[in-house]
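A reminder from the course coordinator: this example appears on the midterm review sheet, so study it carefully.

Given structure:
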């Protein structure tokens, strides 16, 4: 399980909104963080800590809007970060072996960091990501006069994620609460009860966004990352089906009242079939017929929403994310405008993308061709997305 601590107000940043909701590269900071944990095989669930006043906003506009399905609970933060983590520990559902704690405003965390810190904690009980100190470090007195120059050879700048055996972290927090001790990170609480913490080399880019300068650096890093590590992709999908009596008309996963449906092996949802083909094409993963043959009885009458979900998993497995889906349905009848919203919601929900990333429109064929003669309908889908470097 992972605890994402995003309960701060961001006062040091001086922004109108909390730092975790500020946009970096077109997404809220905390969403970028959550998506890394959402994609990690080492994370079975997430407890997200947010300010008490923001709980409803976070559930609706962060978790639901961006399809973060691993979030099991959104809990209120405490007075201090340590209190917030304690609240999250209390909200963990059921037993778990390992707990990962990460700052919600460290959006440059990677799946590899999560993997390495969890593996290290599995061996020692506790581990933290960090980087070696590069600058000379001096200790001063109250008048800012240097009293010592500290050898930096064994000094680390500590970051998150940090990972701990569950019972160990619970015990460390309980002792700190009993003693009235507040540490600056969870590792310090574990150190207090005599358990060594293994340090794992992370990245100097794994910054915590706290000050205006941090925000500038984050936006510069994101711009460089999107330019150098991202390949932009697109795909086109097309499908057409004849109208057939005695069948339901299903488009975009929505049953539409009409006297005819579409002929096909599955539910004949031509709209979703076109979207599936466009997605597969974008990822260089063949077409819908290759993955779901129309002579396979396993797919007879199957909901195309299930096929769409499987296609989403296929392209995610190739490291491809979806940016935008644009669909045009060519049909003389029936009118589809009243159902476009429900279709959009279905696609967004299944693919775990914002509804704003899906657009559906319908056109007649001005009485021309098989569409104009109302013999059937056709669908054209265009999608865009991106593929991140395999090293990310």
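Designed residues:
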């Amino acid at each position: 399980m992972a605890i994402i601590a995003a309960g701060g107000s961001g006062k040091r940043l001086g922004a109108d909104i909390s730092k975790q909701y500020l946009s970096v590269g077109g997404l809220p900071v905390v969403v970028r963080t959550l998506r890394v944990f959402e994609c990690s095989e080492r994370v079975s669930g997430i407890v997200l800590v947010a300010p008490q006043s923001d709980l409803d906003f976070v559930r609706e506009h962060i978790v639901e809007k961006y399809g973060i399905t691993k979030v099991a609970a959104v809990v209120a933060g405490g007075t201090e970060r340590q209190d917030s983590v304690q609240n999250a520990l209390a909200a963990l559902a059921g037993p778990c072996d390992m707990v990962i704690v990460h700052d919600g405003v460290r959006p440059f965390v990677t799946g590899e960091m999560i993997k390495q810190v969890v593996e290290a904690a599995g061996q020692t009980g506790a581990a933290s990501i960090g980087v070696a100190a590069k600058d000379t470090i001096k200790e001063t007195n109250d008048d800012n006069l240097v009293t010592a120059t500290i050898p930096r050879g064994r000094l680390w700048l500590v970051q998150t994620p940090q990972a701990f055996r569950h019972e160990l972290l619970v015990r460390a927090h309980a002792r700190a609460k009993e003693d009235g001790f507040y540490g600056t990170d969870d590792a310090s609480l574990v150190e207090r009860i005599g358990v060594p913490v293994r340090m794992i080399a992370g990245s100097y880019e794994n910054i915590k966004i706290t000050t205006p300068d941090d925000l500038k650096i984050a936006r510069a890093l994101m711009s460089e990352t999107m330019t150098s590590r991202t390949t932009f992709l697109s795909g086109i999908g097309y499908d057409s089906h004849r109208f057939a009596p005695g069948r339901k008309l299903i488009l975009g996963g929505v049953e539409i009242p009409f006297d005819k449906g579409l002929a096909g092996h599955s539910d004949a949802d031509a709209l979703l079939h076109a979207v599936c083909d466009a997605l597969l094409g974008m990822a260089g993963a063949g077409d819908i017929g290759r993955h779901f043959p129309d002579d396979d009885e396993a797919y007879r009458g199957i909901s195309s929403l299930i096929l769409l979900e499987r296609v989403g998993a296929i392209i995610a497995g190739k490291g491809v994310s979806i940016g935008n889906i644009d669909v045009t349905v060519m049909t003389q009848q029936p009118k589809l405008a009243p159902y476009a919203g429900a279709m959009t919601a279905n696609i967004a929900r299944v693919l775990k993308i914002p509804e704003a990333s899906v657009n559906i429109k319908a056109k007649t064929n001005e009485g021309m061709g098989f569409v104009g003669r109302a013999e059937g309908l056709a669908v054209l889908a265009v999608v865009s997305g991106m593929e991140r470097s395999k090293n990310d």
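The longest helix spans residues 212-228. Residues 7 and 117 are 23 Å apart (CA to CA).
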